[in-house]
Amino acid sequence: MTRNKLNVWLSIAFALMALWALGGIVLLDRSVETVPSEPAAADSLKVLIRTGTESAALRELLAPFKEATGIRAELIEVGRDGYFTTVGTQLLAGSDTFDLVFVPNTSIAELASAGAILPLDPYIRDPALTDQETFDLQDLLAVYTYQEKIYALPTDISTHFLYYRSDLIPEPPETWDEVYELAEQFSQSRNPQSPTQWGLVMPAVIPEERTKIFASLLWTFGGDFISDRDGHSRLGEPGSVQAARYVQQLLQRKAIPGDLLYWDFVKTRDALLSGEAAMAAPFWNSAYPMIQSDRNSPFGPLIRIAMLPGIKDEQGIVRRVPFQHGWTFAINANSKHREWAWKFLAYATGKEGGERYVKAGGVPARRSILSDPAYKSTRPDFQLILDSMKVARSEPSITHYPLMVEITEKALAKIYTLDSSPEDAMKEATNDLNRLSGK
């Protein structure tokens, strides 16, 4: 993208943000902190959700929820490709065609600032709606806030693992330096005798996958997207550049696929199952149950999971910072059934709903469920999720998050295609991000 085109693009982005902000003023007037009375209409609760494993698992909650509350809930499923466009358009236009919406935690600041979703604190505090002991807010691994108010609770928690072939690598690597050595050892371009074509693979497609996967490396190497202190971009700082240089050097050495930009979740998982790859990292925790349940691959039983590697400091302590994010439920500010929406949200993110969600293949965000000894043998990934979450980070909760991702992903594309040095690409991204945020 040329400088002139970038300036035009940023101008359009600012105009859209201003329009959203104006719309947010109108919506915010409608969004009050008191819990309204429930309308008497005997219709159903509408839940907007994207099609996939999450919707399949949540569908299993509809019947028990109705049995417990007498409220009929139905899912409005939207394809994954058009989901974010649909959510943004409908919410910011003030649509009341759905009551609950399924969104990633990174959308909360944007939607809350526009008054498109409701704060949940009044519902959580109301004893007529929420039994504090049963609901147990402290049991949740994360809650998502904006300006010190809770706007969303997670149904799912996702983080990054290291996947490795235990027949080739008896002990998982502790550091990214060790990963680098193993990546070369088990890549046929570096070692023609390697039993696998690639020593290391990882997803790097867009939208967002590239940035999220890179985030674990970024933070572990001491870099960041923006400063918590003043909001300035940190992509041009030494730690951020070092993380980008690490991936580019692996590409230059042909220890990871040269077409990395086309590797997605499925291609990465299948490379492990086909015996094409010795390791995958950073890679999503959700791949583990899929790999374990595959009965056709002779390599599936050989694949193990471990904490994401880190960087060893001067004291010999390994510093790891895996990425984490949550898929959440938020209440549409224009919902006609706000109490119903809260009841389903509380059920889906609660302990009973969480237990049912596990049986349907989901990964609930409750410590008590993930640490339950009943799952120790059947879901060993649960304990690793808990261990990872102790040191994991999530992306910044900012109103211009989509544009931050756009800038970051374009910089990474230049780095991963070897079209630019990490220093130049990250410096340009820093300048663009600072202009975007007015820094």
UniProtKB/TrEMBL annotation:
Domain of life: Bacteria
Keywords associated with the record: Signal, Transport
Family of the protein in this entry: Belongs to the bacterial solute-binding protein 1 family.
PANTHER family reported for this sequence: ABC TRANSPORTER PERIPLASMIC-BINDING PROTEIN YCJN-RELATED (PTHR43649:SF34), ARABINOSE-BINDING PROTEIN-RELATED (PTHR43649)
Protein name per UniProt: ABC transporter substrate-binding protein
Species this chain originates from: Cohnella cellulosilytica
